[in-house]
Amino acid sequence: MTDLLQPINFAAGLTLNRRCILLGMSAASMLGAASMSGVAWGMPSSTLVSQTYSTLRHTTYYIECGPADGPLLIFLHGWPSIGLIWHAHMDAFAADGWHCVAPDLRGYGGSSAPAANDAYTTEQVVADMAELHDHLGGKPAIWVGHDWGSVVAGALAAHEPKRSRGVVLTSVAYFPDANALPTLVPLVDRTIYPADQYPDGQWDYYRYYNTHFEAAVADLDADLAATLASVYRPGSPAAIGKVSPTAVITRNGGRFGAAHRAPPTQADPALWPPVDFNVLVQAFKAHGFRPPCAWYLNDDANITYARKAPNGGRLSQPVLFVNGDWDQICSITGNRMGDPMRAACANLTVTSLPAGHWVPMERKSEHIQAIRTWLQSKKL
Question: What is the arithmetic mean of pLDDT over 125-147?
Fold first, then answer.
């Protein structure tokens, strides 16, 4: 069953949290002092509280807000981000009575960042989230993901269905055979990307990580602030039907071409409020881009794991997918990218917003309202 939602301002006040005030430290200096073990760091908000949870295998740093006894809403970020990307959403849903939690996923921010590339399989991240969920009480939650966070939310719902009452996926659809090049490339729209010119279509950047990993990471790490500012740009309707810049990474010799570093770029304050963007940059100074990019190197393991899911990975929980109409990489409009998800979800709702890939940031209030409407319609 597939439902269609017709999609809707929210601004969060920013102050330092009580931990920063007690220690007499700024958010930036707190972040700079944070170690790889996941020490809680400064967080710009009047409501967000910094937490860490550690087991023998992993440490997860997370932020939370809202009533501790409220229904659980867990937000999962993607590449290249931290839990703070969900700042506006957490404040909004906490005001609605939800207990909101947003972890830094493995390799990001204050969470553990193992050195081995094969430590970043979907199975490992799902295990991290299962441990965190148990720590939070283990009651079935609503899981909200964006980008790779959607991949994790979908995999968790498939492998650990009792942990989920519902799933919100944004920008990246659910693929029961795993979000991996062997799954994605056959779905490329060949009217835009002829196979002889663009064998991997818009996923050429993904291939580049697998063929030129060290060079890709070095380019991204050359200027962290400029890289992050250049990555987080709003979408445009002019991009519809055009070749994505991600399709020519290999032929250009890297994301930034011969310069091998991001051009000087100012962060877009409409996407990242300046205080939050500063926290993001400081978070990336802890580990750089190597751990986040290692997520792209585990296709074989991720496919093997996906195929172990019960019922062929079919999701029985209510699922909301929020598509960005102007997303040149992941949009499911006018192509076959959404077909595996439609076949694998028993209770799917699809809605679209006029945005590029960064839907939760480009359309904060509309994305929040789309989730609220879906939660109400499904009585969740």
Answer: 98
CATH number for the domain harbouring residue 219: 3.40.50.1820
Using alpha carbons, select from 197, 213, 179, 10 the residue that is nearest to residue 94: 10
Convert the pLDDT of each residue in 165-200 to its tens digit: 999 999 999 999 999 999 999 999 999 999 999 999
Cα–Cα dist 316/184, whole Å: 23
252-299: pLDDT as tens digits:
999 999 999 999 999 999 999 999 999 999 999 999 999 999 999 999
pTM: 0.89
The answer to whether 209 and 289 are in contact (CB under 8 A) is no
| Class of residue 233 by CB neighbours under 10 A (exposed 0-12, middle 13-18, buried 19+) | middle
Provide the domain limits for residue 38.
Answer: 2-377
Structural domain count of the chain: 1
Of 10, 157, 17, nearest in space to 96 by CA: 10
- DSSP-derived secondary structure letter, 244: P
Q: How far is CA 119 from CA 97, 116, 150, 306, in A?
A: 36, 5, 19, 16
CB-CB contact of 111 with 132 (8 Å): no
Q: Give the rounded distance of the alpha carbon of 9 from its chain centre.
A: 22
Q: What DSSP string runs through 39-91?
A: -----B-SS-EEEEEE-SS-EEEEEEES-TTSPEEEEE--TT--GGGGHHHHH
List Cα–Cα distances, 141 to 75, 122, 157, 200, in angstroms.
10, 19, 10, 36
CB 325 within 8 A of CB 331: yes
